[in-house]
C-alpha cells in the first residue's frame, strides 16, 4: 500500500469531462491499493480571466487582495473534483490551502511554504477518502490568503508529498515527460525516461516548462521522487519521466538536454565605483522588493570603476528599472541600461562533471553561427549563456545537434 | 461619525466599471465622516455559472463541496472592490466569511450565522480602512466553508451591522426601495418611503424580492434599521425605503402592500389517521432533511382521518415528495399529492390590527374574480392565501386596487 500524491494542471481539469477523467484515474490508483492525495490547479483559462479582472480594476494594487482573487480558481476545481469522485462512488474531501493549513510567508503572489499540517489529511485517508487539495495557494499565520506564483501547484504537490512522506509525487501534465529540449523548437528532441533531481533542477531553472523550479528544489531538498506523466494517456501504461536521486539514474551521458527561456530581462550598471559592498548596494534594494535575481556578472573595468550586470524575470523588469535608477544616483554610477530582448540557453547534464571541454565546445558551436554571448553562468552540471532573443531557436537546434541529442 | 454597513448585490458589482462606481460611493460616505464596512455579492451571473459547473459534474453531491465552489464568487468581488478603493486612494482590506470568522452551523447551502468576531474589522476601521466582507458565506467551527442560501449577502450585511453595532445597514440594489407591489405586475405600484421591520418581514416572507427574509428577521430581532437604496443613483439623493422600528413609522394605513411569490409547492397527505403526533410524524422527517416548511393547514376529516397540507420551496419539492412517500406508508395514510403550480398572495400592513374585516374583504375580492383559495394563513399584520399560479397577476392587481394602493 503506497501513498501517492498526484498533481493535475489546468488543462487536465479544464472541463467537467476532463475532471471526470481525472476522477477515473484517481479511482484506478485507489483500486490498485494506494492512498491518493490529489492537488489541482485552476481550470485552464480561469487564472488568466481573474488576472484580466484585476488588471481592469487596479493592476498595481495590494498583492494581498490579488491573492484572495487568484486563489478562487483552484477552490472551484477542488470542489468539482471531490463531487466527481463522489459521483463515481469514491468518498472525497476537499481542502483549500488555508483549510489544510499550508502555512506560507507573507510574500504575496510568490509566497513560500513554511509548514503543512498533514494530520487532517491522514485522518481522511485512514477513513478511505481521497483528499483533494487546492494547489498554488496557502495562508499566512494571520489568516491572509497567499499564492505561490505561476506553476505553484507543482510546489504544493511536492510539498504535500514531503509532509505526508508519500512514496511518489506524480505530476500530470499535457506532455508525457521531459525531453532533451522543447520539441516545438527542435522536432528531433527525444524523451528522457529517467533523470536526476539535480539535472531536473537545472532543466527547470533554465526554462524547461514541464516542472516548476521550486517544486524541483523542494523535491531535491527532501529527496522526493517526481514522476511526470501525461493526463491524456488513459491507459496508465504510456511513457513518463521519473526524476529521482542521482544514484538511481543509470544512463550516463555528457549532456542530458538543452534548456532555454525567454522570461528574463537584463540590467547593466555601468561605471560603478569599484569598492567593497557595491554588489550588495545594487542588489539589496532589488531583493528587498521581492524581485528574484538570476544571473549576476561583474566585470572589472578601468579607472577604478566596474560594470555590473544581472537578470530578473521580465515581469519584474519595470519595477527593477525604477529601483535601479534610484540606486545608480545614490552610488554615483555613470549610467544603467536594460534589455528585454534576451534569451537564456543552457546545456544540462550530470555527466559534464567528468567531461572536460563541454563549455568550450558550446561556445565554439555558438560562435560558428555568429551568435554573440552576453553573459555566462556555470555550475557543476550546466553551462548557461544569455544571447539575443532572435537567435534562440537557432542556438537550441545547433546545440541539440552538436551534443548528440538528435541522433 | 456614524458606522455604516453597505451591501451591494450582484448587479451593482457586475463589471469593473460598476465596481469602480461602488468604490466612488463608498468614498463619498467616508468623506462625510463615516466608517464604512461593505458587504458584496458575487458579480452578476457568476453564481449561476458555478451552479452550472456543479450540475455538469454532480448535481446531487456533497453540499460541503458545493459550498466551497459557490463561495468563490464573492471572494473575487471583495478583492476587486478592495483594489478599486486602493486605486482611488482609499486604504481597504478584504475578508472572506472564514477570515472575518462569520461562524455558522453546518447546514451547508443554507447555513445560519451563529457568531461574528468583529474585532479585526474594528481594528481596520480605527486605522482608517474600509473593510470589504464577502457576503453569502461563513465557516463552521471545524473550518468548512458554508453558504447562507440565495440572497444570503443581505443577511451577512445585517448580521455584520448588528455585530458591529452599526448605525444603519444600507442595502444597495437595482431598485430604489420597496413598492406597494411588484411594478412589473401592477404598473400603478407606489414607492413606500418608510415601513416597519414587522411589515417588511411579512413583505419579504411573502415574496417581495427586495430584501432576503432572513436579513429582515435578523434586523427585526436586533432592531437594526435597514435602508434600501438604488445603486444606480449616483447622486445619493434619490428615493429610498427606510425599514425601521414600528414606532418610527408615522404613516398609518390599513394595508401597506401586496406581496406574492411563485417559489413554493404544495403537498397534501390525505386520510391520515387522526391521532396525536401526526403533524410531527409528517413534518419531522421534512425538517430533518433541512427543508423549510412555510404554510401548514390541517383539516379535520371524517372517519377518524384528517387531511394535512403544507408548502415547501419549489427547489425542495422533489426531495420532499420522496420523504413524504415513505412517511405516508409508515403512517398508513390513504394517499398524498403535490402541486407545483401554485402561488401565494398576501396583503400586508401593521394597520390591519385595528381594522376589522380586512381578511373577509380580501376573500370577497378574490371570489368576485372566480379565484379559488387553497390555503389561508394569517398573522397580526398579514393575510396570505395560496391560489392557482395562473391567477397570480389578476389577484395582485385586483387586491392592489381594492385596498386603495393604486390611488
Automatic annotation (TrEMBL), chains A, B:
Q: Which reaction does it catalyse?
A: L-aspartate + ATP = 4-phospho-L-aspartate + ADP
- Where ATP is bound, by residue? 7-10, 173-174, 179, 184, 209-210
One MF term in GO for this entry? ATP binding
Q: Identify the InterPro entries for this entry.
A: AceGlu_kinase-like_sf, ACT-like_dom_sf, ACT_Aspartokinase, ACT_dom, AKii-LysC-BS, Asp/Glu/Uridylate_kinase, Asp_kin_monofn, Asp_kinase
Q: Where substrate is bound, by residue?
A: 47, 74
Task: Keywords in alphabetical order, please.
Answer: Amino-acid biosynthesis, ATP-binding, Kinase, Lysine biosynthesis, Nucleotide-binding, Transferase
- UniProt key word Repeat: no
UniProt EC number: 2.7.2.4
Gene Ontology CC annotations of this record: cytosol
Which pathway does the protein contribute to?
Answer: Amino-acid biosynthesis; L-lysine biosynthesis via DAP pathway; (S)-tetrahydrodipicolinate from L-aspartate: step 1/4; Amino-acid biosynthesis; L-methionine biosynthesis via de novo pathway; L-homoserine from L-aspartate: step 1/3; Amino-acid biosynthesis; L-threonine biosynthesis; L-threonine from L-aspartate: step 1/5
Domain (ACT) spans 267-350
Its GO biological process annotations read: homoserine biosynthetic process; lysine biosynthetic process via diaminopimelate; threonine biosynthetic process
Q: Which CDD domains match?
A: AAK_AKii-LysC-BS (cd04261), ACT_AK-LysC-DapG-like_2 (cd04923), ACT_AKii-LysC-BS-like_1 (cd04913)
What does the similarity note say? Belongs to the aspartokinase family.
- The protein's name is Aspartokinase
Species name for this entry? Answer: Thiothrix eikelboomii
Taxonomic classification, please? Bacteria, Pseudomonadati, Pseudomonadota, Gammaproteobacteria, Thiotrichales
Amino acid at each position: 500500500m503506497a501513498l501517492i500524491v498526484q498533481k493535475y494542471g489546468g488543462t487536465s481539469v479544464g472541463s467537467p469531462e476532463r475532471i471526470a477523467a481525472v476522477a477515473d484515474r484517481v479511482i484506478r490508483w485507489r483500486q490498485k491499493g494506494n492512498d491518493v492525495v490529489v492537488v489541482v490547479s485552476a481550470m485552464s483559462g480561469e487564472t488568466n480571466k481573474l488576472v484580466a479582472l484585476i488588471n481592469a480594476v487596479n493592476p498595481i494594487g495590494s498583492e494581498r487582495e490579488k491573492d484572495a482573487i487568484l486563489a478562487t480558481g483552484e477552490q472551484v476545481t477542488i470542489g468539482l473534483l471531490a463531487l466527481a469522485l463522489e459521483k463515481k462512488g469514491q468518498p472525497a474531501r476537499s481542502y483549500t490551502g488555508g483549510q489544510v493549513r499550508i502555512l506560507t510567508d507573507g510574500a504575496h503572489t510568490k509566497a513560500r511554504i513554511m509548514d503543512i499540517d498533514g494530520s487532517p489529511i491522514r485522518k481522511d485517508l485512514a477513513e478511505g477518502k481521497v483528499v483533494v487539495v487546492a494547489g498554488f495557494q496557502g495562508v499566512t499565520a494571520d489568516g491572509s490568503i497567499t499564492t505561490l506564483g505561476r506553476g505553484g501547484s507543482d510546489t504544493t504537490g511536492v510539498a504535500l508529498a514531503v509532509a505526508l512522506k508519500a512514496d511518489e509525487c506524480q505530476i500530470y501534465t499535457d506532455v508525457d515527460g521531459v525531453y532533451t529540449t522543447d520539441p516545438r523548437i527542435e522536432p528531433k528532441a527525444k524523451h528522457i525516461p529517467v533523470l536526476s533531481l539535480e539535472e531536473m533542477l537545472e532543466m527547470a531553472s533554465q526554462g524547461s516548462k514541464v516542472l516548476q523550479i521550486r517544486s524541483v528544489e523542494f523535491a531535491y531538498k527532501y529527496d522526493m521522487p517526481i514522476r511526470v506523466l501525461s493526463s491524456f494517456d488513459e491507459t496508465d501504461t504510456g511513457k513518463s519521466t521519473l526524476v529521482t536521486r542521482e544514484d538511481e539514474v543509470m544512463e550516463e551521458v555528457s549532456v542530458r538536454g538543452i534548456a532555454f527561456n525567454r522570461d528574463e530581462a537584463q540590467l547593466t550598471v555601468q561605471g560603478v565605483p569599484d569598492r567593497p559592498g557595491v554588489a550588495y548596494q545594487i542588489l539589496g534594494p532589488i531583493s528587498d522588493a521581492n524581485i528574484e535575481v538570476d544571473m549576476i556578472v561583474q566585470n572589472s573595468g578601468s579607472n577604478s570603476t566596474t560594470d555590473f550586470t544581472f537578470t530578473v524575470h521580465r515581469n519584474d523588469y519595470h519595477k527593477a528599472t525604477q529601483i535601479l535608477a534610484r540606486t545608480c544616483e545614490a552610488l554615483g554610477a555613470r549610467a544603467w541600461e536594460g534589455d528585454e530582448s534576451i534569451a537564456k540557453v543552457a546545456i544540462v547534464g550530470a555527466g559534464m562533471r567528468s567531461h572536460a571541454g563541454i563549455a568550450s565546445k558550446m561556445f565554439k558551436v555558438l560562435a560558428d553561427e555568429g551568435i554573440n554571448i552576453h553573459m555566462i553562468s556555470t555550475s557543476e552540471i550546466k553551462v548557461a549563456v544569455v544571447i539575443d532573443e532572435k537567435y534562440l531557436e537557432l542556438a537550441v537546434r545547433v546545440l541539440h545537434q552538436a551534443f548528440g541529442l538528435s541522433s
